[in-house]
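Reviewers of the previous submission asked for a worked example of the structure-prediction workflow described in the proposal, so we include one complete record here. The input consisted solely of the amino acid sequence. No template or homolog information was supplied to the procedure at any stage.
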Amino acid sequence: MSSAVLLTGATGFLGRELLKTLIEELPTEQPIYCLIRGHEKEASVTARPSDQARARLRKLLSDLGYDRLSDPKITRVSAISGDISHQDLGTQPEDYATLTAQVGHIYHGAATVRFDLPLPEARLINVVGTKHILDLTDRIAASGQRIRLSYIGTSFVAGTRKGRVFENELTVDQPFHNTYEQTKAEAEALVRRAMTEKGLQATLFRPSIIVGDSKTGETSSFKVMYWPLKVFSRGLIPIVPASRSGIVDMVPVDYVIAAIWELSRRSDTIGGCYHLAAGPDCSTTIGEALDLAAAFFRVRKPLFVPIETFERYVRPLFNFFFRGKRRQALDAGRVYVPYLNYQASFDTQKTRQALAGTQIAPSLVTRYFQTLMQFCVDTDWGKRSASDSASRRTSQ
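From that input alone, the workflow returned the following structure tokens.
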């Protein structure tokens, strides 16, 4: 039997798309284990964690279009109840023993992507969780088996840096915009140390802001870039604390998945770090993005003011006059302000060289930006399915 693959973060936006690729591309005899939390707030308190994990996997597979659970491609996909923030991944001893004995490749994508978590909480998931994954790689290697790690980080480990950021650069002792950036940098440093000191065969992936499919706009997550775009589309905030020249580096999920799949299977990428980003050639600016959004949503273009001016003069006025949804939008939007003034550019030279000749490359953000916005409108920002919207339009 082929060595198994372990995927963490399967229920997340990127993870679910990666799971679909693994199902379609890996040989049917190769087991796929998904580490899934068995305790969820909405789950029945009487159900066992293992049953809850399996139920979440079944729903995920159904959402991905896999309804025939007897399909050989699906029967080899199993849920392991666990939590990366716990020792031994929070799994039962027999499950951890199975992972140790069978797994030959780990795709580690589980993380908290919240910007506002207190540092200890963010570290528990992103840093301690990564350490527990590395503990598993140590156990597998100690048993004499080969193990490879594909670690999914973020380009925003660059923190508050400005100018060109290269793929091999990582500085943990620097300022960051939030605890997400800081803890992802600390986690990547752990992986790099394991590569250097223990010879771990790993490949590091650094996506920038991941958005929907470049061809359809489809997404299962309306966070990060989508939240301020939704607020803007409704004309709730007429003044934005942004620089028109702020860099918007985002990449469609289909590009990120294709690149991870291609580069994670090759031996020449072991030890490499790859910016899965639009880069200087394909990114856009806040000014250009909001001009496109204003035209699409038919709203007025906002007034751009420096962040210092906004915080000193404009926000106090808004706090006084705004109520309800506008006030909520103003408060919730604080975490996104640094990305409206972003001045770092992610170099993608190594990635472009590694993908040369594969037809895998990022598209210009401006080429598919309208497609993303159309999907938002068609689904009412995720409240209904795109197929329902298409049916309604057809019947009208």
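The chain has a mean pLDDT of 92. We consider this example representative of the routine output the project will generate in years two and three.
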